[in-house]
Amino acid sequence: xxxxxxxxxxxxxxxxxxxxxxxxxxxxxxxxxxxxxxxxxxxxxxxxxxxxxxxxxxxxxxxxxxxxxxxxxxxxxxxxxxxxxxxxxxxxxxxxxxxxxxxxxxxxxxxxxxxxxxxxxxxxxxxxxxxxxxxxxxxxxxxxxxxxxxxxxxxxxxxxxxxxxxxxxxxxxxxxxxxxxxxxxxxxxxxxxxxxxxxxxxxxxxxxxxxxxxxxxxxxxxxxxxxxxxxxxxxxxxxxxxxxxxxxxxxxxxxxxxxx
Length: 260
Hints:
The structure is a single chain. Helix content is 33%, strand content 25%. It is an alpha/beta fold. The chain has 2 domains: 3-61, Arc Repressor Mutant, subunit A, CATH 1.10.10.10; 78-255, Rossmann fold (3-Layer(aba) Sandwich). The strands form 5 sheets. An 8-stranded mixed beta sheet has the order 7-6-5-10-13-16-17-18, sandwiched between helices. Strands 1-3-2 form a 3-stranded antiparallel beta sheet. Strands 11-12-15 form a 3-stranded antiparallel beta sheet. A hairpin with a 3-residue loop joins β11 (175-177) and β12 (181-184). The radius of gyration is 19 Å and the shape is globular. The mean pLDDT is 88.
């Protein structure tokens, strides 16, 4: 396939899926990873996409009606998500009752949890499996299973959440903006996140830097409703509204909020 045609395919895939991995583009074009990475570098220089670790995302997409599927998200920002997950795990103490939400960054936390005496509750089936593999005390909520995310939602999930009091809740989101706060495409998932946060003493949102400046359909709560754990804060104005922990810093510091 000629270079021009490959780039047309790349941009077409990106327009439909919002985010694409190098592996998926190799399948779509029949090209090698090295060739795809060169194409992505070229398109990034032309400001036609944002190149990220493992693939590419649309440039400055303000509103997202949907998010990329789980298979794509797993391959994007992998190093950043691991840094975020390590920092989040470091906040968990043995006496904690912890809620772990859906989301690829939250899911990565299971890989770094060892010998914890905390009690874990999750709405994600895969997360529950990984926690039990490590011998951790784990409860999984009931509800309607979304096969795309392997998470449960709905009335049964909400009822199950009301039975718990959490010391810490770790949530995933799709978008973060100053005006709209934290958002996600699914209203039922948003409702479950809100309730989990209400039942928790401390609430943390795990989000890589690509989530900032993005808005999706369902509001979760304003910025003040949670601390943010991210790899890099792209806009210092967020510090006026909440505490931000940057995992990408060699010495992680709590920063923000200027608001009472």
